[in-house]
Specification:
It is a single chain. By secondary structure, the protein is of the alpha/beta class. Helix content is 34%, strand content 12%. The chain contains 11 helices and 12 strands. It has a 4-stranded parallel β-sheet with strand order 3-2-4-5, sandwiched between helices. The chain has a two-stranded antiparallel sheet with strand order 1-6. α10 (333-342) links the parallel β11 and β12 (345-348). The longest helix has 25 residues, at 241-265. The radius of gyration is 21 Å and the shape is globular.
């Protein structure tokens, strides 16, 4: 995806066949349902909660582990939440975003566990620096990149899904950033590369151990997750499968419409570069032919180096960037310092990790539409 970083990675296909892989231990003979007859769902944080509520409608009771206004990356699970998870009919989470949730789900004996990352494709740090924006998607097609396409057998090429739908490659690890074994640089050269600008004149940000989990900020990937979840809920609660299917179709149509708005709204802009607090918007950037320059990388709590700040100031000047975006749930101190030093303005680009009184909308779609408006202004859309 088009996030400039020091160490490029490779696309990690993680698509799984939900009906066979992402479910565990539930059959129609012991179909789920609480004392009120509703499907009890535990969602890890808001983007998962939104999908479950939209697809489930009146047939579900959804509890979220991350309260509104709580920064999800640093969530700690309480004993009460752990106990409630054990009683859930279905647990929906996004592996790699919240370590405490990952651990709790792994230890949980909940009837059905659905990992959203197995329902679409992930990328580990993005394409090689200098690769053209949006080159991995078919322009205007609305389809995910070729790396995300499943094989004819219905499973991603070179991947095996375990009984819970968690995908690994054939050898249990990922390829290097170029798809083959590239010779490592000596330690001195590697350190120098981290401190200096990349070969295209920009510092490429920060590396991250593992795939980028921010899939919900790409409406196309998010729609893929919705489809997979709809199948999971139908399997967990077959008595209401028809309603889940109908609600899934309606939600996917709304997400498709959102994708169309982004595609048209960002097609013709003065610049295709935008600066954010942390690298939450890499999938969105890749989808719509943009380049995200982040201050702190994938970890919103990390501190940028002086070299990184200097590189961003140079980027802003070279790429005609006039805005630094910050988030509602993370401190805006660094973003505003960079903006003041470089003579730029600031604005909010919401990663939609929770809906609060500060959110520019009441749900995922409304906040994403507000994000589109902010991006169009910052990028000089025509």
């Amino acid at each position: 995806m088009n996030v400039r970083r020091l160490i490029p990675g490779t696309a990690v296909a993680a698509t799984a066949v939900l009906g066979l892989g992402a479910l565990s231990g539930c059959s129609s003979s012991d179909a789920a349902g609480g004392s009120d007859g509703k499907l009890d769902i535990t969602a890890s944080f808001y983007p998962m909660q939104y999908l479950a509520e939209e697809i489930g409608g009146g047939h579900v009771e959804v509890t979220t582990l991350t309260e509104p206004g709580q920064e999800p990356h640093d969530l700690e699970i309480s004993a009460r939440q752990t106990a409630a998870m054990e009683e859930s009919d279905l647990v929906l989470y996004l592996k790699g975003l919240q370590p405490a949730v990952d651990e709790a789900v792994q230890q949980s004996e909940a009837r059905t566990k659905v990992d959203a990352t197995t329902l679409t494709s992930l990328e580990k740090d993005g394409p090689e620096p200098g690769k053209s924006a949006g080159s991995e998607k078919s322009a205007g097609s609305g389809e995910p990149s070729k790396s995300a396409e499943p094989s004819k057998s219905g499973e991603p090429a070179g991947e095996h899904a375990d009984e819970h739908g968690h995908a690994e490659d054939e050898h249990g690890h990922a390829e290097d950033g170029h798809g083959h074994g590239e010779e490592e640089k000596p330690a001195g050269e590697e350190k120098a590369a981290e401190e200096e600008a990349g070969h295209d004149g920009h510092d490429h940000g920060h590396s991250h151990d593992g795939p980028d989990p921010h899939i919900w900020l790409d409406p196309v990937r998010y729609a893929e997750v919705a489809k997979g979840l709809g199948k999971a809920m139908a399997k967990a609660d077959p008595d209401h499968a028809a309603d889940y299917g109908k609600n899934t179709d309606a939600l996917v149509k709304r997400l498709d419409a959102l994708h169309t708005k982004f595609e048209g709204g960002l097609r013709d802009t003065r610049t295709n570069v935008f600066i954010t607090t942390h690298s939450a918007f890499g999938y969105l950037a890749d989808r719509y032919g943009l380049i995200e320059e982040s201050i702190t990388g994938l970890d919103p709590e990390s501190e940028p180096s002086g070299a990184r700040i200097k590189a961003l100031q140079q980027t802003a000047k070279a790429d005609k960037v006039d805005t630094v975006f910050y988030e509602t749930l993370v401190s805006d101190r660094t973003a505003k310092t960079l903006a003041n030093d470089a003579g730029l303005r600031t604005d909010v680009l919401d990663p939609v990790e929770g809906i609060t009184d500060k959110s520019k909308g009441d749900d995922y779609v409304q906040v994403m539409e507000a994000n589109l408006t902010a991006l169009r202004t910052a990028l000089g859309a025509k």
